[in-house]
Design brief:
Number of helices: 13
Order of helices and strands: HHEHEEEHHHEHEEEHEHEHEEEHEHH
Structural class: alpha/beta
Radius of gyration: 21 Å
CATH topology: TIM Barrel
Strand order of the largest sheet: 11-10-9-8-5-2-1-14
Helix content: 40-55%
Strand content: 5-15%
Number of domains: 1
CATH architecture: Alpha-Beta Barrel
Number of strands: 14
Distance between the termini: 41 Å
Oligomer: single chain
Length: 448
């Protein structure tokens, strides 16, 4: 395989584990390099086409799933519940925006997480920080916290199981539009904020009835295009799953359809940018509130020098109190540059705080406020608010506060199950979808 795919090894690589045994790492990555692809280059190109439509203002992205997936969570029930929630949100957003919704899971590969410190101290004992199931275990013991290369193979196998389930659910009738809409009607009937959503649910119902009466029954009603994505954090893993496409001779990271870089790894002169530069997947870059317009332009120049539509998505994570000030200069400069970029809002990562109980949490109102700010900025500039990127689960966890069935800070301990950051539960996720639908007015839908 081409040596240029290893050029990143000469550069500083942030957030890489200090592996317990490097010879074991070499053995595992050599074995990973022989495994079948998890996704295919043609599927990655198809997603790129969909994201090009987003950049043109003709589609909207719904990207979501776990903060950090766990091996134990790769069960049929857990995957189905996440997918069900994503599909329910997508129906509401599709109707409200009157454009196709590109459905991308933070699923089938989100097994590694960046950490602010390499170690964790409890009662005077220091062990390596938990970096996600792809690296080590959550339990605070020397055995569990060993940075174990064998876990990379387990991450591959768990990703394969999850993707297989997603493909089966989205192609096997489970995702039928009328069935998903029926789930939303059930949600509206049971929701404390049900009346607020009743009108929209009723409009969707009438639209579906009209199409049925007209005899319209397109394939799009019965199955769903679904794409996988994760943060490309552990470069040895991503490199082992990079293949040369036989059709084109180009390199693709076949661990996911789309991969992204975080705030901590998007150093222009770092290994992650260099690795991403060499692959032909659609890629995302997280941009925090300290990002300058020049930073954004330099990333565009490095990662998409030919201005290929759908290649680059900027995922902003500013915080509800900063987005209205921090985002406009970025969008203005990037738009003036003329190269196509899809703008997606991550309203989760800038709004985390610690409750008195010690639990990390987020307020649903802050999440909604950041999305509202994102829409306001794009509306004022005449550009397209291209989507949302959220952390959620299909389970009834108590990790974020607020929502129609309100969770307060004293409730957090009841079902706080995340392996890393707090996620919206199913109820809160659907609350968010209906609220985003309200934000997505006709003036926004027409922008861009």
């Amino acid at each position: 395989m081409s040596t240029h795919l290893d050029s990143w090894r000469e550069l500083p690589a942030a957030q890489q584990p200090d592996w317990a045994d490097l010879s074991e790492l070499a053995t595992v990555t050599a074995e990973l390099a022989k495994q079948p692809p998890l996704v295919f280059a043609g599927e990655c190109d198809q997603l790129k086409d969909r994201l090009a439509a987003v950049a043109r203002g003709e589609a909207f992205v719904l990207q979501g799933g776990d903060c950090a997936e766990t091996f134990a969570g790769s069960t049929a029930d857990a995957v189905r519940n996440k997918l069900k929630t994503l599909l329910q949100m997508a129906v509401v957003l599709t109707y409200a925006a009157s454009v196709p919704v590109v459905k991308i899971g933070r699923m089938a590969g989100q097994y590694a997480k960046p950490r602010s410190k390499p170690g964790e101290i409890r009662d005077g004992v220091e062990l390596p920080a938990y970096r996600g199931d792809a690296v080590n275990g959550f339990d605070f013991t020397p055995e569990s916290r060993r940075n174990d290369p064998q876990r990379l193979m387990r991450a591959y196998n768990s990703s394969a199981v999850t993707l297989n389930l997603c493909r089966a659910f989205t192609k096997g009738g489970y995702a039928d539009l009328r069935q998903v809409h029926a789930w939303n009607q059930d949600f509206v009937a049971q929701s404390p904020a049900g009346r607020r959503y009743e009108q929209l649910a009723g409009e969707i119902d009438r639209a579906l009835s009209f199409m049925r009466a007209c005899g319209a029954n397109p394939n799009e009603f019965h199955d769903v295009e679904f794409y996988s994505s994760h943060e490309a954090l552990i470069l040895d893993y991503e490199r082992a799953l990079t293949r040369i496409d036989s059709r084109t001779g180009l390199a693709y990271d076949v661990a996911a359809h789309m991969v992204w870089m975080g705030e901590r790894t998007r150093d222009l002169n770092g290994a992650h940018v260099e690795f991403m530069r060499q692959i032909h997947n659609p890629i995302g870059v997280k941009l925090g509130p300290t990002t300058s317009a020049d930073d954004a332009l330099a990333l565009m120049d490095r990662l998409n020098p030919k201005g290929e539509p759908g290649r680059l998505t900027f995922i902003t994570r500013m915080g509800a109190d900063k987005i209205r000030d921090a985002l406009p200069p970025l969008v203005q400069k990037v738009t003036e540059n003329g190269a196509p970029v899809a703008w997606v809002c991550d309203p989760m990562h800038g709004n985390t705080f610690e409750a008195p109980s010690g639990h990390k949490t987020r307020r649903l109102n802050d999440v909604i406020n950041e999305v509202a700010g994102f829409f306001e900025v794009h509306r004022s500039l005449g550009t397209h608010p291209g989507g949302i990127h959220i952390e959620f689960t299909g389970d009834d966890v108590t990790e974020c506060v607020g929502g129609a069935q309100e969770i307060v800070e004293d409730d957090l301990h009841q079902r706080y199950e995340t392996a890393c950051d707090p996620r919206l539960n199913r109820q809160q996720s659907l609350d968010l979808a209906f609220m985003v639908a309200e934000l997505y007015g006709p003036s926004t839908a027409a922008a861009g």
